[in-house]
Amino acid sequence: MGRVVALDVGTKRIGVAVSDELRILATPTGAIRRHSYNKDAAAIAQIVRETQAERIVVGLPIGLSGGLTEQTRKTQRFAEMLASRVLVPVELWDERLTTWSALKTLSLEDRGRPGRRDAVAAAFILQGYLDHRRASSRSQ
What we know:
Blueprint (H helix, E strand, L loop, with lengths): L3 E6 L3 E7 L6 E8 L3 H15 L3 E6 L9 H14 L6 E5 L3 H8 L2 H4 L4 H24 L1
Helix pairs in contact: 3-5
């Protein structure tokens, strides 16, 4: 198989998580401070190279009612830009409630650390993606 990188794209930071090679477990690995599309894409491409990832999953912030928001559109544009700059497939994945779940999981101390919440949210996105893919492959 191969590793998958997940991104929780925010306005200030991009949370990053990486799967194991068997695509069973997601691990939060850090956050990238946002600069520009080009610098952000270069940083992500470096992570993909270092981890030998075969896919990128970008969390798509769909509104709780299922509608598109301004952040949804910004994230879609970011994913399109990223797909044109990396050599692996980029896939969007519904991220509803991942930041909330991340906050519930983190200790008060961790909540105050810049980027920690973003990385944990990326891990929730990735774990949901991995679990869904595994369940889908079993049902076929």
